Fold this protein.
Amino acid sequence: ERHIRYDDVRNLKSVVTTELNVEGNPTPDFVALCREVRPGQVTLVPDAPDAITSNAGWDVVAHQGFLRDTVAELQSYGCRVSIFLDPDPALVDAAAVQPYRATAQAAVAAGLGLNAGHDLDLENLAYLALELPGLQEVSIGHALVADALYLGLENTVQLYLRQLK
């Protein structure tokens, strides 16, 4: 319960009219919350209990069994599941975006949907959208809200949408 309390999630479920995306470390309590609330999307993040914010992704090789079982359980509750992961450093051979591009291509080839989030803003969103084949959705929080403080929410949303065209 780092950024939001579980009771807040329960309350938001009754008022959110768009997709509710709940992000967190899939502890037993978190999975139980998802079973109860049944958000539209769950994003799994491997946070340490003392982490201030998400700073690393899943090692999907080391945690393959756990993630497979957790994803299956959450999907059985009707949740679409995203996994926050780092690109494989072994793929870094050219530009900094190469690991992301290779990961995106592998995901699309495997028939997976591709979402992106964390540290996206008006300066990097258009480039990322061009470089990641099959990108279906982006989750932008902090930068959008910060920009909206200066530019207004309606203008800011339109600016972000233009970056994706």
Q: What stands out?
A: The longest strand covers residues 135-139. The chain has two domains: 1-86, 91-165. The mean pLDDT is 86.
